[in-house]
Amino acid sequence: MFQLRQPSSATSNVDTIDVIGPPRALEVILCFIYPSTDPPTINNLTLLSQVLVLADKYDIGVARSRSQTSLVRFARTEPLRVYAIACRLGFEDEMRIASLRTTLIHLLGLAELPDEFKLIPATEYHRLILLHVRYRKEAKAIATTPSQTPASIKGSFFGVNLGAVIGETMRRPVVESIRGGTPLNYESLVLAVKTDHNIDAETSGVGKLIRSILDKANALDLTV
Question: Which residues of 124-133 are buried (b: 16+ CB within 10 A; e: fewer)?
Answer without folding.
Answer: bbebbeebbe
